[in-house]
Structure formats: structure tokens, C-alpha cells
Design a protein that fits this description.
The complex is a heterodimer of chains A (309) and B (238). Chain A has one domain: ABC transporter involved in vitamin B12 uptake, BtuC (Orthogonal Bundle). Chain A contains eleven helices and four strands; from the N terminus they run H-H-H-H-E-E-E-H-H-H-H-E-H-H-H. Chain A has helices at 4-32, 39-56, 63-90, 99-119, 146-168, 170-180, 182-187, 192-218, 225-240, 245-265, 281-295, and strands at 127-128, 137-139, 142-144, 220-221. In chain A, the strands form two sheets. A two-stranded antiparallel ribbon of chain A has the order 1-4. A two-stranded antiparallel ribbon of chain A has the order 2-3. In chain A, helix 1 crosses helix 9 (225-240), helix 9 packs across helix 10 (245-265) and helix 9 (225-240) runs parallel beside helix 11. The radius of gyration of chain A is 20 Å and the shape is globular. Chain A starts with a helix and ends in a 14-residue tail after the last helix. Chain B has 238 residues and is of the alpha/beta class. Chain B has a domain at 1-80 and 159-167 and 191-237: Rossmann fold (3-Layer(aba) Sandwich), CATH 3.40.50. Chain B has helices spanning 43-50, 73-76, 96-103, 110-123, 125-129, 140-152, 170-185, 197-203, 221-226, 228-234; strands at residues 5-14, 17-27, 32-37, 58-63, 66-67, 81-84, 158-162, 189-194, 206-211, 214-220. In chain B, the strands form two sheets. In chain B, strands 6-7-8-3-9-10 form a six-stranded mixed beta sheet, with helices on both faces. Chain B is globular and about 45 Å long. Classes of the chains: A mainly alpha (309), B alpha/beta (238). Chain B: Belongs to the ABC transporter superfamily. Chain B: InterPro entries: AAA+_ATPase, ABC_branched_ATPase_LivF/BraG, ABC_transporter-like_ATP-bd, ABC_transporter-like_CS, BCAA_Transport_ATP-bd_LivF, P-loop_NTPase.
Amino acid sequence: MNELPQQLVNGLLLGSMYGLVAIGYTMVYGIVQLINFAHGEIFMTGGFGALTVWLILPGGTTMWVALPLMIIGAIIVATTIAVGAERFAYRPLRGGPRLAPLITAIGLSLALQQAVWAWYPGAKSSRTFPEIPGGPFHIGDVTIQTGDIFLLIAAPISMAVLGYFVMKTRTGRGMQATAQDPDTAKLMGINTDRIIVVAFALGAAFAAIGAVAYGLKYGEVQFRMGFLLGLKAFTAAVLGGIGNIYGAMIGGLVLGVAETMAAAYVSEIPGMQQLGGQSWANAWAFVLLILVLLFRPQGLLGERVADRA
Amino acid sequence: MTALLEVEDLRIAYGKIEAVKGISFKVEAGEVVTLIGTNGAGKTTTLRTLSGLLKPVGGQVKFNGKSLRKVPAHQIVSLGLAHSPEGRHIFPRMTIEDNLLLGAFLRNDKEGIAKDVQRAYDLFPILGERRKQAAGTLSGGEQQMLAMGRALMSQPKLLMLDEPSMGLSPIMMQKIMATIAELKAEGTTILLVEQNAQAALSLADHGHVMEIGKIVLSGSGQDLLHDESVRKAYLGED
């Protein structure tokens, strides 16, 4: 049996999860030139938000009722934390040295991990996430696991909603303007402080959807889940061209496929038997990043239109 | 009756360095007033303060009788004060049409906005021909047209133009100046900052000459145009 289509689909599904989280890195960077290293933890709190909703719901609630509520719970928790972080941790530092907010982000990231570890019941080890009932389904030779069905539906819808929001709504146009020239955006009457809050909130909302997808895919959430996934999503954002929302999604997909393919096929290359398999997937992901940055430092979809004075 | 814009003893500093050292002037409705002077005289600093991007260290600005002291930058345009900044500052990666629509960011009258977009295209046909093109692909002169068109989209009571002729070819410069004259004829109130003193003074009802943060000479456009010291210093005569 030819495994390639299956691996490709696995890679695209993994990649779309990276993409959902990468949006938050890229949007915040595009508007305030801040790498929000706490974004991976905001993703993680979204996962625990969803879990909390599930635990509160009466036992026996079907997943079809629970899942929408869990998504809402995840979004509420993640956006609240992201907006709070912006207001109380990042905004007071705006206009200061560039390193200050970066260090704050790293500190915040550790604080959020430790807070969940210390205070969330049972979070010192991983907590089981509910499953969608039903078996996997098949399209030809390709099998889609039950836990991945959510991603298959949620990722394209999220991207379409985001694209529409940014391109077609007034606030979306205000975001684009603020990203390109914040002072001039103010001259247009755009409240750039508000736009920054919107960017943090939106990024957190998509990360929260990604966190629900993570829980369903892996069947668990843990306080450290945002670290590696956040790093991957950040890689995806850079790979696609940081600041570009489509780049985030494309970067995620490319990264997911590359990782999956490397895990599946590198060991078949003569002399590289030891460098294949799942344990090397992360290493190959970063090799890809290095290669892309060597030849295209601005990322795959980095800005092409010159800013003429 | 009070003037549309009243600036009184305005002082602006960058850190400890005072860039504008107490200037006063007025703009009446329907007038074109120009600030001329060399680089570093404080003209751009003055305009950026009027639109709230910089905070003054002293003095008063009243627009339509209201003090602008506590108004944040993003609320200034809603009062009717539009600013076409120095260096044009169009949004390069957005289309020409989206740039114009951003000029109308706070307006809600869809039909009125569509009409004003059309008016900008009538004023500058090249913008209409390229409406779906990224604004960064325009030439300098075309970007200037877009910046002016965008500022007009807010239906301003006072239009502030900062160096509209900067870096333009003589033909393009004439075109921009002709458009300003056209706007003046329609009754638009304009505060014009220019290094091209000849062009600015020919258009203006009133002019003020700025030198290192101070207004050193004021008068009607025609008087200044014929003033000997102005001719020597700014019009290249000896």
C-alpha cells in the first residue's frame, strides 16, 4: 500500500494546528513588533479552559453539545489572559527598550505554566481530554482519526473567518493600517491601542481553537503543552513570513508536512537510518527553518511590495 | 467671531531641545494659510502637534473653539482636522481604494463615502485607473495625490498639507499646486506647509515665515511674495 497520501494528510492536519497557533504570533508581531513568547502558554490555558467546561458539565453530556461550549470556554479563558497580559504586562512597557517586553513575555510564559501546575487540580501530570465518539473514517486509502476530524473542519473555517475579518471589515482594515504605519493610522482616526488589544484577543482565540484540537488529537492537556507547540508555531510564523497571516497558515502546513515526511521517510535514505523516525521530527523541522531563512530571510510570503518613500 | 484654528504661544520640545519656541497664528474658515521656512524651522513639528501625534510643552491650540490639549490623536480627525503628512505616508501594501476608505474610517454614510471616493478619482483620474493596485507601486507624485485624496475623505473643516511638493518633478509639482488652488476655489480651508515658498505664497491668503522655531515674519501671501527679505532668503534672489 502506498503510504504517501496518508502521510501527507497527517502532515497537513498537524500543520493546520501549528497554523492556528502561529496566527497569534504573526498578528501581534505585525502590529507591535513584539514576539509574544507567552503565546504558547495562552494556547495551553485555552486547553485547560476547554477541559474545565467539560468537567463542569453534567456527566453524560454528549460531545456534540459539549464541544461548542468547550470551544467557547477555551476562547474566553485564552482571550481574557491575552488581553490582561497586553494591558498590564506589555502596554506599560510600550515605547521602552525593545528587550523589556521580550523578557516580560518569557517571564509571563513561565508564570502561566507554574500557575496551572500549582493550582489547577491534577495538572501536575497530564489530564485526560474528552474524546469525540465514533471510529476513524476513510477516504480511499487515507484514514482520518476521530481526534483529527475537528481540525479538518475547524482550521479551514477559522482561516476563512480571519481572512474575511482582516480584508473586509472596518476593524480589519484598521489592523492592516496600524501594522503598516501606526502614526498615520492615528491620523485616520484609528484607535491603535484598541487595535492592539484586538490583535492579542484574536490571536488568543485562534490559539484556543488550536488547543481544543490538540486535546482532541492527543487525548490530553498538560501545563507544558504550550512550550514545544508554541516554538513550532513560532517557527511556522517565521517560515511563512512573520507579520503575514496567510504566511502563518502556509508556514504551519509546510512545517507539518515536512516534519511528518521526515519522520516517515528519512530513515529510508541509505546511510541516514538513525536520523529518521518521530524522535528526529523536531530536528528536521528546524533544519527546514534554517534552510528557508538562508535563501529567503523574509520567509515564504514575506513582504514583496517595496515601500517607496 | 473666532477663527477656525487658533494657535497661541505654542511650544514643542523633543526632550530638552525646544523645536518650536512659542508661535501664534490663526486660520479663518475658507482661508489658505501657509507656513514657510527652511528645513528644521519647526513646520512639520507644528502640524504633527496640531493633529495630536506630539504633545506640546506649552501654549494653546483651539480648533472650532475647542481646546485640543486633551484630545488623543485618533480623535482629532473626527473634529474635522485632517492631516496629509510629510513624506505622504500612504499605506503601501493596501490598494488605492482601501487607502481612500481608511481616510473615511470614522464615517458611516456608505453613499456619501462612495461619492467622495468618486470625487477623489475625478480630482486625480490616475487613482481611479489604478484603484485595485497596491499604493506602494505608485510614483511619488501619485502617492501625494493619494495622500491628499485620503485626507479629503474625512470631509475636513481644515486640511493640513505637509510639503505636498517635496521630491516631485516640476510638472508633478505644478499639478499638485493646481489641485490645491482648485480646492481653495471650492472653499476648502487649508493650512499648507511648504519649502517651495513661491508656489505656496502665490496661493495663500496669509503666510508666516518660520525660522528655528519662531515665526519671524507674517503677512498676506502677496505681501510676503514681494517682501525683499523673503525674496532673498526663500525665493533665491539676490
